Amino acid sequence: MSKALIPTYDICSLAMGMPASEDILVARFSDYLAAHRDIHFPHRHSFYHLAFFTAGGGSHTIDFERFPVKAGQLYFMVPGQVHSWFFEGNIEGYVMNVSAGFFNAFLQDPAYVERFPFFSGVSAEGVVQLPKAAVPAVMALFESMLKEMAGTAIYSLDMLRLLVLEMFIQVSRGNRKELAKQEPPHNYVLLRNFRKLVDQHYMQLRLPKEYAALLYVTPNYLNAFCRHMLGKSAGEIIRDRILLEAKRLLINVDMTIAAIAYQLNFADNSYFTKFFKKYAGVTPEEFRKNIS
Length: 292
Hints:
Elements: E1 8-9, E2 24-28, H1 29-35, E3 44-45, E4 48-62, E5 65-68, E6 73-77, E7 83-98, E8 127-129, H2 135-150, H3 156-175, H4 178-182, H5 185-201, H6 208-215, H7 219-230, H8 234-250, H9 257-263, H10 269-280, H11 284-291
Parallel strand pairs: 1-3
Antiparallel strand pairs: 2-7, 4-5, 4-6, 4-7, 6-8
């Protein structure tokens, strides 16, 4: 595959011969891999993507962070994340592709799914190792989803919505850290809103005080809050988002370093190179060479 462009897949393009749906696909992982043999190369999705491994090994890279694949592991990815994998042994498990709007027929809050901690868009937070005792229940839910996908029973999409939400809730209940259990709900709302604002405005707004104003809190409060929730300052979170986008753009070899610096709103190419090397440890050119 040429790295001139990272492919972005929609659900219909990965339909595997099933009835085309713009909203959901559930399949066994071995069938999914057999139908899409080149999909291990770096790519993005326009939908939420979930991989659940029950056997096999190897590695899975999400936004340039590599994770070892283990049985009982789930990977939750949000639209736009770049990922690739290298598997070892016979991979078994399940895969789910689901659109952001799939639940809108059920839920009044269109952002409901974003409340789950594994859909933060931060790679490490989207990797969940299930306790061994929890694996059979999650497998049973996936098996029920496969039956609904294959059948033509009335209300099959509604039943799928229920099964998917039940799985999200069970996984979330079983894998929240003890500290997270003690946090009041409004803290998660503030954190989610801050991350969403950063994702929307990181090219233009670079200072914590600019986001604090949008959130109606003081800069000192925002920094203290981020350190409490994530162990990082607000400035680090903004910086990390800029760095992530720079890495995503550097995969596209049709863009010059100068063009990337301009797109990310750096004053000049030299400033961008200094920024990237300081926080990534290599120059943009070296990073591009290492991933080619």
